[in-house]
Amino acid sequence: MDVLGLVDIPSWIFTILLFIFTLYLYTLWKHTLWRRLGVPGPIPFPILGSIKDLAVKGVSKTDQDLVPKYGSVVGVYNGTIPVLLVTDTDLIKEIFIKEYQTFTNRVLILKTDDLLDSMITAAEDDHWKFIRSTMTPTFTSGKLKNMLPMILRCCDDLVNNINGKLEQNDTVEMTEVFGGFTLDVIASTAFGLQVNSQKEPDNEFVTNTKKTLTDSVVKPYFVIVMIFPFLKNLMGTLFKAPVFGEGSEDFFRNIVQQLVAERKSNSNSHFRDFIQLMLNSHKDKTKEKENGRIDELGGLDFSEYKNRGMNENEILTNSMVFFGAGFDTTKTTPSFAAYVLALHPDMQERLFTEIDNELGKSPPTYDSLPNMKYLEMFLAEVLRLYAAVPRINRRAKSDITVNGMFIPKDTDVTIPISALHRNPKYWPEPEKFDPERFTDENKATRPMYSYLPFGLGPRVCIGMRLALIETKYALISTVQNFKFVVGSKTEIPMPLEKGFITRPLNGIHLKIEKR
Ligand code: HEM
């Protein structure tokens, strides 16, 4: 039909249909890659690939089904992005350690603004290397030791808060309790602020942090970019993905600006929080170079950045990374630990005995931690079965052949941690909770990269030691005072959320008795 001699409607409809059909053919062609390369895997769901399974079954369940069925290297697609699921420990080592120059970066679905690009978790190549090497010295044992008094204060608040809850409730929701503790630790270690988030839930810092953490940044256009990666830049320009929740960016920017101004004007600053350490780090790094220390990350040239310290955007966004990367992970770990203790009274007794023998009722100390071997083994097993991050990935910067296997440019190489940690080859009766797997003798029987709760290689979790200390301190302080017991609301087995962080679906409700 002809409208005003200008528009021929049937030909428009035809053109649109042809366009859609061409896009569909494009996705079909993309979905032939693994078949052409001889990599086993499921027949991809049209257009969406494995996104459908991730949404319906969840990340961990999808991987736990795929890996036993197809083996230690599985080819799937996120939309049309090729994803290689690798649980072969030799290949893991080659890709994540030996070939890290090609696999330096994570898979970023959407690049948006300077703030996102400057997050250590998302930054790429030289920029990541600059930020990582600037932040690394803030996590040395010496610096972490200086933070222990702050963490101990948060432990006291944690015990008082639980005591307060016991009077009001039959069961206690553990992620709320340990969430408050984790938030307090981050507020003091990152910003030097003393907050008791359980006692003061309306505190401005607490409300803004919660806003930051609960706002979802996964938007529908992420899925469009996964299906049509060539739209990445257009989508990035059209939709600015928020890095932080509504309004909270301004709130935190103000805090950081104020703190940076205060600290810069006070050269004898006695603060030991991460903001101060990031401000100092440039100076410290220069000293290290003068002392002849070799750059441990080696290889990449970061000359563009080396003559400056972190700028304000980098300090802002990386202070916020403490929440993104360190909050959920660190609040769920002691919560899952409490759940397992309630389910296994014998293990709880053993932990009581060890802690009583080592510390009695005295607060934990840094030097006492290595003496508590059972705590170490128990926590390692918690992190095996409830690894906070069920998948980690790297993007291939260029075509590469590793151990005889061709991996094309832009492939997302993913380690499905939750499936790796349940591989019966390394973990007999994988669903059984058994801390004895982590005796020195048993550890020696497994390949090195069969256990990766904190990832591996140059991009391994930078907060690992802080997280372990924080979790151990929280567990010791609670176990010294309380006993975890299964209550009427405790779910066995516990349903988990489906996403990219391992969280309980309905919280963890336990009865707590005073010891
Ligand atoms: C039990 C607690 C935690 C677990 C299980 C955990 C786990 C992980 C994992 C699996 C990764 C990815 C590593 C890789 O790709 O190889 C990671 C990265 C990271 N984590 Fe953690 N994490 C925890 C706590 C923390 C804490 C407390 C902080 C900060 C204070 C933190 C900061 C980071 C950062 C900044 C990265 C990115 C590092 C980079 O790209 O260079 N994490 N974490």
Outline the structure in words.
- The chain has 515 residues and is an alpha+beta fold.
- The chain has one domain: Orthogonal Bundle (Cytochrome p450).
- 52% of the residues lie in helices and 9% in strands.
- The strands form four sheets. Strands 3-4-9-6 form a four-stranded mixed β-sheet. Strands 5-11-10 form a three-stranded antiparallel β-sheet.
- Helix 8 (141-168) runs parallel beside helix 21, helix 10 (204-214) crosses helix 13 (248-265) and helix 16 (312-343) packs across helix 18.
- The radius of gyration is 25 Å and the shape is globular.
- Residues 286-301 have low confidence and may be disordered.
- The site of protoporphyrin IX containing FE has 24 residues, from helix 16 and helix 21.
- Protoporphyrin IX containing FE binds next to helix 16 and helix 21.
CATH topological fold name? Cytochrome p450
Query: How much helix is in the residues?
Result: 40-55%
As residue ranges, the low-confidence spans are 286-301
Mean pLDDT: 86
* Main structural class: alpha+beta
How far apart lie the N and C ends? Answer: 83 Å
Beta-strand residue percentage: 5-15%
- By DSSP (H or I, 4+ residues per run), the number of helices equals 21
Radius of gyration: 25 Å
Main pleated-sheet profile: 4 strands, mixed
List of distinct ligands in this structure: protoporphyrin IX containing FE
CATH superfamily: Cytochrome P450
Q: Report strand order across the widest sheet.
A: 3-4-9-6
Q: Can you tell me the number of structural domains?
A: 1
Query: What's the CATH architecture name?
Result: Orthogonal Bundle
Shape: globular
CATH level 1 class label: Mainly Alpha
Structure summary, number of beta strands: 11
